[in-house]
Amino acid sequence: xxxxxxxxxxxxxxxxxxxxxxxxxxxxxxxxxxxxxxxxxxxxxxxxxxxxxxxxxxxxxxxxxxxxxxxxxxxxxxxxxxxxxxxxxxxxxxxxxxxxxxxxxxxxxxxxxxxxxxxxxxxxxxxxxxxxxxxxxxxxxxxxxxxxxxxxxxxxxxxxxxxxxxxxxxxxxxxxxxxxxxxxxxxxxxxxxxxxxxxxxxxxxxxxxxxxxxxxxxxxxxxxxxxxxxxxxxxxxxx
Length: 239
Hints:
Shape: globular
Strand order of the largest sheet: 1-3-2-8-5-7-6-4
Strand content: 25-35%
Number of helices: 7
CATH topology of the largest domain: Alpha-Beta Plaits
């Protein structure tokens, strides 16, 4: 009876515990002639100061408007854990400013996103070394419409054995839904013929003419989109 009572008393705390679905992304851009020095300093910093819920996965951006930059993903964690994290301390900040920032250009980005399990076909922690990130920006008032577009694609992704993680931007500029195709078999997944064309797969899932309807809705809901290829750099990441 005492054990049962103890479990019942814990239920309220379990109920309010926040899931670890939040990731923080920092993008930095080293000076062209200082890449080697930057990478050495970044690896040392990540492995000393970023562990546990705040571990870093470091990707090199290889295409798109941010090519040449580095994508530092921290987490996943929860907002509650971030509240309790506190100041990282002068030693951490000084290491970044004195040993890393000196090799960077003035260009940088910082954002927060929340993983959406209901739209994804792969668990949050099931990562890949090569990924394609697609950034979609809804037109004003059309977030729900874009979310529905992604929801429709989930069935097509699942049928095609595609591992796709979906994130929603949180308080980080324009509303954005991000899909991350985790290329478990590498870049060859991008080749023509690896999978049937999306249009035929979509019509197979939803019926003849469904792809045309999807494209019409896409034009109605989406302001713009862009994609990029990133490659994981294990030697620069947290251990």
